[in-house]
Amino acid sequence: MQPFDRMNRISKPQNPINLFQSLSYALPIIPMTMLIVPIAIIQGIYAKYYGLALTTLATIMMISRLFDAFTDPIIGYYSDRYRAKHGTRKPYVVVGSLLMLVSGYYLYAPPGNVTVIYAGFWFCALFTSYTVFEIPHQTWPADIANDSVDKTRLFSYRIFANYCGVTLFYCIPLLPFFDSNEITPQTLKVSFIVVAILTLPCLFQAIRIVPSGKPCLAIDNLGHSSPWGLLRSASKEIVTNKPFLLFMLAFVCSSFAIWMWYGLIFIYVDAYLDMGDQFAEMFLIAVFAGILVTPLWYKLALKLGKKNTWMVAITLVIASFICTGILEPGRTSFAQLLGVKIIQTCGFVCMYAVTPAMLSEIIDYSQWRSSTEKNAIYFSVKVFSEKTSMAAGAALGLAIAGWHGFDVGAIEHTKESIVALKVSIVWIPTLLGIISLIFVGLSPIDERRHRIIRRQLDIRLARAQVKT
Fold first, then answer.
1. What is the DSSP letter of 1?
2. Which of 150, 161, 154, 157 is nearest to 202 (CA)?
3. How many domains does the chain have?
4. pLDDT digits (tens, 9 = 90+) for 305-332
5. Which residues contact 150 (CB under 8 A, 6 or more apart)?
6. Distance between CA 258 and CA 417 in Å, rounded?
7. Which of 94, 114, 176, 268 is exposed most, by the fewest CB atoms within 10 A?
8. CB count, 10 Å around CB of 113?
């Protein structure tokens, strides 16, 4: 009985992540979000202030995403490999943050005239830096969380910090020393200064306080000579992993829909509704609403389960798409515009808090099947899909509007260009959102099944420790 008793002692999960550690983990997200948020509006800024065409910007964003097709699996591979050897992912989080600072400066505060090559290079640089930071940071909870509750809590704090960063960004145009409340190149420069001040203290707190994670059961990437070798072997497993396939189909459809909307909402409000001076205020109030509902989504996820909660969130996002199409220039009040954004924000908050926790559970299922750990590889696929959806969705919306003659500088718009704009920001996103709902409903892993999987993994880890 003695070995069995010893195994039971070892198989007990590590100490739960406390509140202070959870908050410290989320802190770097605040400045990094302030750097990534302007991506949703930068195409409007570059078109309005630097004279780049919408179709040109669409091409730049697509090229930057193709470049990510090469960097994401590489970062996922080396992040897992480094953790296998050194037991941590922290250096990647630090390096990625610092690289984002450099690339963000040149993208948002260009020193002179902006050319297509200049914009293309720094778009690629920012997204690559974001990859170096985002994949290890988003994988981190899978290394340190004990169970489904811990995972959901950590990712809820992460999305809470995300919206704190969004709040700070949209507060800047409302500062009294600006001539108007519009988002301009000058407000982007001030935003970068705030990011530069916050980054190092937030990083230091996270690296100092948050643990690196539990021991690895087994990581098979050390046997591969390159990330592409691991990617090929992991791809075979991923293709046969039904829960992961359904998750990715749902995530890609919903993300693509959301980023088509985000890619055009600044242009829709500024150039079509002629309410650009109210854009920052609208986003700021909606972000406060998003922060307030984050704890409610966390409680709802614990009560209904993450799968059902995700479906509720997608339904809200679809409603926001449809309501956007109802808004008309000269007839839209600030309250109506704000209502649409609050609905969208509440759904968006939930999606990006729940989906990483769901993926962590799917990763546990994969580890249970194969007895190997590929945490960062799975998260690199998710991050790549998220960034691709971000760029491809925005690019498609911009391209459709641009091809049909929508001009951000025009006083009046043709009927054809308005129809194209609404197809891009309303009807295509709505269709994709409905498809996403179907895939989420088919997902087979719930909290009960994950608890069974997690117990089996804890027993395996305990046996491995007993042998050593």
1. -
2. 161
3. 1
4. 888 999 999 999 999 999 999 998 889 8
5. 16, 17, 141, 144
6. 21
7. 176
8. 8
Please indicate, yes or no, if residue 8 is contained in any of the structural domains: no
Domain assignment present for 11: no
Helix (H, G, I), strand (E, B) or coil at 20: helix
pLDDT surpasses 50 at 11: no
DSSP 38: G
Q: At what angle do helices 375-403 and 116-144 cross, to 10 degrees?
A: 150
Other Cβ atoms within 10 Å of 57 Cβ, number = 26
Task: Give the three-state DSSP class for 418.
Answer: helix
What's the mean per-residue pLDDT of the chain? 81
Residue 275, domain CATH: 1.20.1250.20
Residue 434 contacts residue 238 (beta carbons within 8 Å): no
- DSSP one-letter code for 13: P
The structure tokens 């003695």 sit at 2
Cα-based angle 20, 21, 27 (whole degrees, multiple of 5): 90
Virtual CA dihedral for 145, 37, 105, 280, nearest 10 degrees? -140
* Sign of the C-alpha dihedral computed for residues 355, 360, 363 and 368 taken in this order: negative
Radius of gyration of the chain (CA): 22
The answer as to whether 405 is a domain residue is yes
Give tens-digit pLDDT for 111-130.
777 888 888 888 889 888 98
The reply to whether 52 falls in a domain is yes
Q: Is residue 162 a contact partner of residue 33, using CB atoms and an 8 Å limit?
A: yes
Mean pLDDT calculated for residue range 222-248:
68
> How far, CA to CA in Å, does 340 sit from each of 246, 343, 365?
29, 5, 38
Phi then psi for residue 219, to 5 deg, are -130, 120
- Terminal C-alpha separation, the chain: 18
Report DSSP letters for 111-162, one per residue.
SSPPPHHHHHHHHHHHHHHHHHHHHHHHHHHHHH--SHHHHHHHHHHHHHHH
pLDDT at 108 over 60: yes
Instruction: Name the phi and psi angles at 425, rounded to 5.
Output: -100, -15
Q: How far apart are CA 233 and CA 80, in angstroms?
A: 14
Tokens of 253: 């459809």
pTM of the predicted structure, to 2 decimals = 0.68
Burial of 195 (0-12, 13-18, 19+ CB in 10 A): buried
Block residue for tokens 């941590």: 88
CA 323, distance to chain mean position in Å, is 24
Domain region containing 179: 16-467
Interatomic CA distance for residues 63 and 124, integer angstroms: 8
Range with the poorest average pLDDT among 156-165, 201-210, 292-301, 451-460: 451-460
Q: How far apart are CA 399 and CA 370, in angstroms?
A: 43
